[in-house]
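ok here's the first one, seq then struct tokens
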Amino acid sequence: MDKEKKAYFVNMIEAKDGKMAEVLNFNFGGHHDIAAMADRAKSLGFAKDKHAKEFVLAMRFMHHVIKKNSDNPLFAEFAPQFEAFKQIVKGKLGCGCDCK
């Protein structure tokens, strides 16, 4: 897999009382094919397809936040545990590239 940068736009809309309201949006990027990862994550035994999608997004977002804020004390204890968990998941799922 090449390391071509992919760009995503995340837009969350809240449905409340029959009305739709945008509550947040942001750009997100990287070289991972998030849709392909979500498709492969179905093999991890989630109860529903949407849980595999949520899992992949959560992992990618958390990885990105920790990496970009590695000096933040909030992550001091959690970052090594997250990294270990990420490696377990990567061993089962792969990420579709040769990144670390």
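and now the second one, same deal
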Amino acid sequence: MSNYQHEVIFCIVNAGYSEAVMDAAKEFGARGGTVIHARGTANKEAEKRFEITVTPEKEMVMILVPSEIRDDILHALYRSVGLKTPGQGIAFAMPVDSVVGISDEKKPNAEN
């Protein structure tokens, strides 16, 4: 297990599927995310290799989660919006070494 307490999950899906991303993530404890509108690029070889058609309009959803729920959320995203679904999504996670601005419901606020 890593020393990191939080990870950020990035999920890139076709435009219109960010809500499906958040629905899947919330089932396993995510509280919210940030959606960034993006434009994807891929060459014909990548389309053929992965057997997909690249839709250029994308949404990238960033979700900050406790490390212990990361794998459950990644598996849920694969099932609900993965490459073999209409969302044609990919997801990956990166460790976060410091977090401010979110509360941990299990710990009392130090200012109270």
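notes on #2: The helical segments are 18-26, 44-50, 70-81. The CA atoms of residues 10 and 62 lie 5 Å apart.
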